[in-house]
Amino acid sequence: PHVDILRLFSPHRVFLQFLETTTWDHSILLDLLISMETSFLAYITRYLHLVIAEWQIFCDANQLYGAPVDTCGPSNGDVEGQRKGVTIVDSTGGGQGGKSD
User: Fold this and answer.
1) CB atoms inside a 10 Å sphere around CB 19
2) pLDDT score for 96
3) Is the pLDDT of residue 59 over 70?
4) How many whole angstroms separate alpha carbon 42 and alpha carbon 38?
5) Are the C-beta atoms of residues 89 and 95 closer than 8 Å to each other?
6) Of these four, 7, 22, 86, 92, which has the most CB atoms within 10 Å of its CB?
7) How far apart are the first and last CA of the chain?
8) Is the pLDDT of residue 65 over 90?
9) What is the pTM of this model?
10) Burial letters for 64-101: b for 16+ Cβ neighbours within 10 Å, e otherwise?
11) In this prediction, what percent of the chain has a pLDDT beyond 90?
């Protein structure tokens, strides 16, 4: 039971839940990033460092949101239905994030 609680409150699941709560609206993220009234820029910087350090854990959490984890190259944008999650591209292909739809 203790492990389940820790997994439930993993930073990756919390961040993905936040994105889902904001309906994956990039303008909300942008507002938070440029706002002088929040510490979102510092948070996202630290979180992205954690994603790099815990790549596999992030991929596992991302799959819970129904998005395939693409580590082979960029997505062609041809997605069936509505799938949520972060589209992941390996470091040689740049990097993409956002709603997969």
Assistant:
1) 21
2) 46
3) yes
4) 9
5) yes
6) 86
7) 35
8) no
9) 0.62
10) ebebebbeeeebeeeeeeeebbbbbbeeeeeeeeebbe
11) 36
Q: Would you say 80 and 95 are in contact if contact means Cβ atoms under 8 Å apart? A: no
The encoded tokens of residue 92 equal 């040689």
CA-angle at 56, arms to 101 and 25, nearest 5°: 30
Q: CB neighbours of 19 closer than 8 A, spacing ≥ 6?
A: 86, 99
In order, the DSSP letters of the chain are: -HHHHHHHT-HHHHHHHHHHHTTT-HHHHHHHHH-TT--HHHHHHHHHHHHHHTHHHHHHHHHTTT-----SS---S---S---SB----GGG----SB--
